[in-house]
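Need a sequence for this fold. Nothing fancy.
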């Protein structure tokens, strides 16, 4: 990746800004989804910078996404944590949504852990943790269209088979078992939102082979793989996708469920960092 390309000036500007303000150089990045942001405050915070201060970073306007970049040290590892993300449904193009991933890679991140809230497409109850082993990009767009990850013209074809690192998946399962966290593997479908799925849409996604659906995460993974990052993904099931109207789940309920599971997910994240 070349951050000095004029076309990628937002990335270059963000990296220059952050280099002047971060005391460490992170090797691991974590993106915290809806309701999971408290994890970033549970260790020694070396720096905390609101997204609106970082050139090129999209703003977060959704409840449960604080919109801060936090540098921490965990077990001797320098970790940069994104408290929340921007979404396609907020009106951002996918190149803007994934700009933070490009910035993390330019800062030196080699392993990216992505988390999100998701709706179950099967019988998994709310509170279930699902390791993402594959995905379906159903957003009708791709963040790599028309440009290389670091800027410039078409950057070539990117291999997505095995996008979610198998060794990291196995290690993450061992950590979950050791910590008593019930966890499963599954396929995540990504849709644009902001509408929740109808019963017919949820049934369709299930027939396509997905076990959960989210409105985020997959574009970040696509860019991370294009940049050569190792990826581990966790989807926290917060609701049943396509539930009848009298049981419909609003975003506040999604955030509330994620918040209730945040401590368990945080313990798992600590174990994963120890295992890297």
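Here you go.
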């Amino acid at each position: 990746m070349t951050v000095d390309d004029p076309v990628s000036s937002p990335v270059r500007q963000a990296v220059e800004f952050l280099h002047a303000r971060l005391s460490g150089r992170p090797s691991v990045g974590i993106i915290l989804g809806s309701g999971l942001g408290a994890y970033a405050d549970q260790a020694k915070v070396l720096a905390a910078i609101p997204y609106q201060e970082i050139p090129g970073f999209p703003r977060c306007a959704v409840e449960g996404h604080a919109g801060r970049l936090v540098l921490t040290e965990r077990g001797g590892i320098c970790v940069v944590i994104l408290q929340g993300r921007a979404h396609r449904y907020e009106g951002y193009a996918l190149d803007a949504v994934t700009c933070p991933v490009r910035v993390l890679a330019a800062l030196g991140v080699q392993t990216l852990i992505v988390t999100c809230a998701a709706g179950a497409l099967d019988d998994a109850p709310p509170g279930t943790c699902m390791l993402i082993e594959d995905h379906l990009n159903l957003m009708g767009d791709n963040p790599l269209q028309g440009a290389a990850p670091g800027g410039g013209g078409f950057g070539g074809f990117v291999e997505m088979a095995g996008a979610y690192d198998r060794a990291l998946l196995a290690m993450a399962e061992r950590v979950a078992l050791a910590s008593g966290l019930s966890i499963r593997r599954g396929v995540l479908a990504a849709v644009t939102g902001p509408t929740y799925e109808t019963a017919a849409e949820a049934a369709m996604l299930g027939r396509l082979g997905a076990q959960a659906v989210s409105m985020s995460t997959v574009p970040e993974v696509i860019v991370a793989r294009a940049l050569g990052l190792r990826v581990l993904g966790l989807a926290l099931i917060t609701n049943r996708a396509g539930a009848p109207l009298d049981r419909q789940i609003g975003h506040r309920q999604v955030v509330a469920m994620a918040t209730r599971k945040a401590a368990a997910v945080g313990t798992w994240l600590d174990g994963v960092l120890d295992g890297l």
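For context: The chain has seven helices and nine strands.
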